[in-house]
């Protein structure tokens, strides 16, 4: 009989109003990468939190190397060699990388912190596994990819043998994802056992040895990756066949809904501008996608459009009205909706209920507030319940659930429901499918296309090249704060897009793949950045 590194046998975990794990069994072999797949709210993170000691199950037992163990808290888990990288990182933002790695496992001698010894170990680990970090960098100043490396080094610093990755690629660039997949393979080759939660079937097919599937808290089955396909896995996950191709008719372009002229936004990280003289338009009836490697000004561009950052220069026109200096609420009431990149920081108030978050931008409307200024609680609950059902937002206590207690994917679905149901003239969607399962992604893509077909303008910002190519009518590539190319997804290749995203190529305004077959400056597709002609010819 094979001895497993970890066995979770018949685990049941309940919360008020919901059974998150219903008699689930999971067995992890030594030295394997074992993927855990399921829809949003299927119970994956809960099951891993039980293994890491954050939750205690009502039923079932955990075995390590064949021996029954009690994991009462994360300290117990660490002592047993179990480490976890959480979906939302557990780092102290004002501490350095080194301080975060050694926090709680400090080496001391005669009461003194042996920091140089710890530094040498961290540097050695980072070189061994290709996890290059600056030990002295402050967490709040580094990229999310670097923060994730810090989290992985925390596990390795503690000599963990069982490594849990909860949605590790949700906030990473394609290059960082490839690096992480290689790191995981290297760790498994050394004999470490990895549990890997993800929604991305391509990553499972590339990196995992086996995959266990959960659906609505129940265990569906475990399959060998070499014997399955993405289509079979998705059917196991959602209980039906999923269409991976976005079906949409040809875009019917109407008048301009968003016009951006010479937009410049300062950077918080360095002296150069994060967005440098960018101009483009979005018409009603089209999906325009901003593509690029993370950190090339997309975030600041959206902050400038939504009012989260003030402009250093340029103008923004929404539906013919100059909104450059208007406050955020005024932009929203004029027909702008914004699905933000950071759902916790800008999308939700985590300690509010789901129903309060759903009316967060509309509570002052007569539909939800009476003439005396009191909230119409009955109408708010009825409205929230309709959106929860329509968008399949899973929550233990329905409209009164605290949003903090919901899974990341269901938090995202709540934001998308709120923003789309406002019936906006312009929908700005930043990474709208991040952390969602394939069934939810299919649904959200249909919603974005439906907005387009209803004559709305959609500005999509995505790091997922498959999403960029499948759903957009026009692609703008950003590199170092400027738009370096404009393309028709029907004619451009992924490889060519990658060259522009990496800065290896810059398109002339009349290049062969320009949307609309090379529109002139006065044409409907004109987009670009303020630059010298000779720079555009590079």
Question: Brief overview, please?
Answer:
The chain has 538 residues and is of the alpha/beta class. Helix content is 32%, strand content 25%.
Approximate shape: globular
CATH fold-level topology of the largest domain: Rossmann fold
Strand proportion: 15-25%
Widest β-sheet, arrangement of strands? 6-9-10-3-11-12
Give the helix/strand class.
alpha/beta
- Provide the CATH top-level class of the largest domain: Alpha Beta
Query: CATH superfamily of the largest domain, called what?
Result: P-loop containing nucleotide triphosphate hydrolases
What is the level-2 CATH architecture name of the largest domain? 3-Layer(aba) Sandwich
Q: What count of structural domains? A: 3
Radius of gyration: 24 Å
Describe the fold and architecture.
The chain is α/β, with parallel strands linked by helices and 538 residues long. The protein folds into three domains: 6-238, Rossmann fold (3-Layer(aba) Sandwich); 243-335 and 424-538, P-loop containing nucleotide triphosphate hydrolases (Rossmann fold); 344-423, no CATH class. 32% of the residues lie in helices and 25% in strands. The strands form five sheets. Strands 6-9-10-3-11-12 form a six-stranded mixed β-sheet, sandwiched between helices. Strand 11 (210-215) and strand 12 (218-224) form a beta hairpin.
